[in-house]
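Re: beginner question about structure tokens

> Can someone show what the tokenized structure looks like for a real chain? I only ever see the sequence side.

Sure, here's an example I had lying around. Input first:
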Amino acid sequence: MTVYTQTLKNKSVEMAQSKLNKHREMGTKSQLNIFQVAELMDKVKNANSESNQHESIFFSVHLN
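And the corresponding structure tokens:
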């Protein structure tokens, strides 16, 4: 289940990156508005920070 979830997250981040790259190439002719671009940028940025947080959860558990 977690592998499937990670694959979906990776695909959505890759799709957001490709949309941002296309937007960058098209420049002012792009159909995306500023809010859509900001949402895509947040998705890419947060995906990187979320993956680091999930990895650190297991290291913070101490068995006493």
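Each token stands for a local structural state, so reading them left to right follows the chain. The chain has a mean pLDDT of 79.
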